[in-house]
């Protein structure tokens, strides 16, 4: 896991390799160095997606894509995304070391900004490639310090010259290995899962406007207390999701001004992450959360100035032929496995909009992820890479 040392390590061993920071630049350069050992040509597109292409017998065919991401959360783990790229590198190495010439070329891909933790939304690089976002919109996104995505991409030297689109960088299919980021495989004592799809999800930005008032002189019954209102909304959002089986809702970012200990907040911004097993349930959750928050604001003389669902991703179902190749590869490899729908978003959500796609999950300890304690055993990582190789060879022969 040499790549995990290319990062600002947090005190508890976490990884801070936020997209487009200096460590992301270094790990991209490390990745390009690695793939050169396996006879790959490298192209970087205009959103920084890196395609390392190993030629096959018939290079007129679009490559079989093996992708994931190298960016992390601010206090992330060493496996989320990284295992997918390293497993793909392992497949390249195995083909190279055994002089296997595939029929189609193989592309190992580092998708830009999968996490969406610094510049939202998530899965941005694969989303632009799939035609879901425009490059200009992506370039305009800013982080909490006001840095612009497009300027950061140029600063680290990874604003490539290849147009960023499926048409300019065709793939014939896409496989992705990823840690499960949940507890199911450990509970069932299985090393791998065949991922059949990804749940629906939306991200919101909410802004509330109250009144700055003196904490010491304003009577408790005549306040327009924005931070209190936000807190009541956060409790209500949690209650709606708790009461909705198959639904999840979280608030993990909040900003209040003026941040003076003796002045009631006049403005609060917070984000909501809503997820559900299907689109109908997501819509129901979104409507109920909005209704509850409107009631709370009305009772508090606080105005909801912004209620912006700035990103939504419908439920994704992966291609059955691809899923069956992963299933067959896991079974031929003698691995105990199960099928699963992913709770987390992945670049495969967007590649699935353009090409047949499937994913392989590997077990992770206690289901922990987006946390320094994230861990998968070398045996399970090897199992994931072996299932990936088997699926790729099946697809190549198909
Ligand atoms: O948000 C997600 O599910 C992923 O980590 N981008
Ligand atoms: Mn990931
Ligand atoms: Mn993640
Ligand atoms: Mn993800």
Automatic annotation (TrEMBL):
InterPro entries: Amidase_Cbmase, Bact_exopeptidase_dim_dom, Peptidase_M20. It holds the Pfam family Peptidase_M20. One of its GO terms (molecular function) is hydrolase activity, acting on carbon-nitrogen (but not peptide) bonds, in linear amidines. Gene3D superfamilies: 3.30.70.360, Zn peptidases. The keyword Hydrolase applies. It comes from Phellinidium pouzarii. This is Peptidase M20 dimerisation domain-containing protein. Keywords: Hydrolase. Belongs to the peptidase M20A family.
